[in-house]
Amino acid sequence: MAAMLLGMASPEAKARGQAIVDALMERNVDLPDIDKPCSNDTKIYANGQLPASALCPLWQAPGHYARPDAAVAFNALSQKFARDLGRPICVTSSYRSFSQQVAVKARRGFWAATPGYSQHGFGKALDLCGGINDFGTIEHLWMKQNAPLFGWFHPSWARAGGNKPEPWHWEYAG
Q1: What average pLDDT does range 49-60 have in this prediction?
Q2: Measured CA distances, 14 to 3, 11, 61 (Å)
């Protein structure tokens, strides 16, 4: 994993990757070494326009993808969740193309971001389930405590008391 995190192209990405690696090593989290990132496509794409070459699969979440640095961090987070709670993190939504964002907005109205402005469209947001999707559960509390160690956070607007409380919505800080 360290090789994957540090293999990112930009100095900012390398610094973020090193900070994550340092935090994980300090907490004795097992970091399997991966020789190559799942994608070396480092181009910048418009929201909802990421090609498959710029996305990586999420561990134990078939059909779900995120941008490479977010996927690496999430996969390590999900593996720790599995070690601590006995199962991987459940994912209901990940990267969304622009057309998928339009469909979600039509279906969910106020509760969905305006198409083209969703962090899902950059491959940096996930909607989670399996207990994480309810405030106050052991799973949600575990995420609040552990997700920041892996570069993931629960945005203030999505927290209990936020303007759109969504316990299931988490974003990557990278």
Answers
A1: 96
A2: 10, 5, 26
